[in-house]
């Protein structure tokens, strides 16, 4: 212990970890009043439509006007009536249920129901699977 100098006591406080005040703490009324008393510069701004949902349901915007002016019919394509009749007839000729046909083509039974009722949006890939499973041509000329 020959090379060690005298031992001194350091009496200054050491702050190990002090978190900076969060945004909510800075906006707190007590913090704002303390800053005013200390003479700090305080800036307050009123936010437009703060705490309301007016922006989402405001009056007519440019997009709304464009949609109102648009007269084009925007409907999805549906299954043609001849396709749904051919599908139903081919399935009944094979004595299959909708669920059995759906399982055969790895689709949900709801897909077959939509095709037979005409509510489905035609998908050529599914129609091709149906044609292979039923062994008949469903679209076009027989």
UniProtKB/TrEMBL annotation:
SUPFAM superfamilies: lambda repressor-like DNA-binding domains. SMART domains: HTH_XRE. Keywords: DNA-binding, Transcription, Transcription regulation. Residues 87-141 form the HTH cro/C1-type domain. Residues 50-64 have a biased composition (Polar residues). It comes from the Eukaryota. Residues 20-39, 50-81 are annotated as: Disordered. Pfam families: HTH_3 (PF01381), MBF1 (PF08523). Residues 65-81 have a biased composition (Basic and acidic residues). GO terms for cellular component: nucleolus. InterPro entries: Cro/C1-type_HTH, Lambda_DNA-bd_dom_sf, MBF1_N. One of its GO terms (molecular function) is DNA binding. The keyword Aminoacyl-tRNA synthetase does not apply. Belongs to the MBF1 family. This is HTH cro/C1-type domain-containing protein. It comes from Miscanthus lutarioriparius. The lineage of its organism: Eukaryota, Viridiplantae, Streptophyta, Embryophyta, Tracheophyta.
